[in-house]
Design goal:
Two copies of one chain form a homodimer. In chain A, 24% of the residues lie in helices and 21% in strands. By secondary structure, chain A is α+β, with helices and mostly antiparallel strands. At the A-B interface, helix 1, helix 2, helix 3, helix 4 and helix 5 of A face helix 1, helix 2, helix 3, helix 4 and helix 5 of B.
Chain lengths: 296, 296
Amino acid sequence: MRSINEDTITQAVIAAMAACDNPRLLTLMTSLVQHLHSFAREVALSEVEWEQAIGFLTEVGHITDDKRQEFILLSDTLGLSTLVTAQNNAKPCACTESTVFGPFFVEGAPELALGADIANGACGEPCFVSGQVRGLDGQPVANALIDVWQSDEEGHYDVQSPAPDGEHEHRARARLRTDDEGYFHFRSILAVPYPIPHDGPVGRMLEALGRHPWRPAHLHFMIVAPGYERLITHVFRNGCAYLDSDAVFGVRSTLVADWVRHDPGLAPDGTRSPVPFYTLRYDFVLNTAGAVEMHA
Amino acid sequence: MRSINEDTITQAVIAAMAACDNPRLLTLMTSLVQHLHSFAREVALSEVEWEQAIGFLTEVGHITDDKRQEFILLSDTLGLSTLVTAQNNAKPCACTESTVFGPFFVEGAPELALGADIANGACGEPCFVSGQVRGLDGQPVANALIDVWQSDEEGHYDVQSPAPDGEHEHRARARLRTDDEGYFHFRSILAVPYPIPHDGPVGRMLEALGRHPWRPAHLHFMIVAPGYERLITHVFRNGCAYLDSDAVFGVRSTLVADWVRHDPGLAPDGTRSPVPFYTLRYDFVLNTAGAVEMHA
């Protein structure tokens, strides 16, 4: 420890963890230190670049609050989120694929009755969403708990524009339960492409890398039911821009679906829509809980 | 981009940076993404572990302010700072070695006359420090600007305990200039071992890893003079605890020096000390600016 140099520092850090009594943590930190050091060596990281990295991470930390999670944005835009999601969600190919969680989920959204308008004032063209949740055996999953969340037509989630009194108001976000036949349906608004928050350090990073901050239009779903693996995924709108260049690498071809446009008239909920509206039908197939993992 | 999986994500992220017009940034980010992904694959990073990492970094960001830099502590305790310092400061072995900068430097410390008591009220046993700054040719470096900073006997730097009125008061921290013969001398307090700030996420990380947060006693120096490379280093107190287990891997054997203890009596500044005092003599050898880098 008194003759550390650029060649011996990595082993010195690993040796310093010898008393760690958590084998998994030791595995994680040993690998992290080795890769962190390998990176710094490989690029011959300069002191100025190190300072810039410290400054960048400091900014990421300071812009992060209970409404904005810039570290998740960073993980998403560097593809880490997709990698972690993919390597932890290998399942039979008949199952609905998982994709990234994103930074806009909110715990404790209100549970609404099937058929409810979850928009709750969020602006956008009307959209009626329906589908069925099934298991791998084709049997419907009754009483599955569905969290759904999406942006409004300006590309903002409710958490990004809190109500004037500071209270969080849930808009275009709800929990629903499938019926006895595994079906669900609700009214919301048309999903549109939007840029991830790019007025902070991650946005500047993307700009410096010649990348855009846009995501293709999508709905977020999280589905939980006893006996099944939790599913976290999106459904993406076919024909939409950015399907081939999602800023957070979330698109899977099996998750792309058609939103069907309808002229004004009778809507699926039995009302007469004075404006054009959209419908989306998408079914989800859940993996069995505790199943042996299979690579699709 | 529509069939990304755990095997193809890394290339997808790299491909997304194809329009980057900054070759160095592209090199850095390509290597960073590859190592970040290799780490996640190697340890099969789970989604819960990913969430814990996001939470950890968020805490590091939130505890960081203009008085505390937890990201630098993290870099220091993971050995990254030492690696970056070492690989950027290769120099002839006759030069004084560099070591980590640390998080407690302050710009614009007051410039004091040689011989001043820089403690400015910081508590600790009296210590008289002197030395000479020379070039590789043995010639004295006159008018070199020396920043010196250290903790008090309780292990706190001035920035960690701001004055009651919120103003920063410089204590045990100053700037000095060498005289025509390259000599400097000042009065301060005895350096003692101290723990790095460990009431935050980095402290918890160290504890989980079975590591202690202590640093051996040291003085920080930064020396700048025209025609010479800037030197950032410490001088460590011989015989002190933690020289072999510095929490930030900063010790170099050539930077360890003897602090000599004296009984009460005549001090180097001509006064009579009623209490025991210490003296330290340490000379610095600066590398020539723009010299071809040589590995020691």
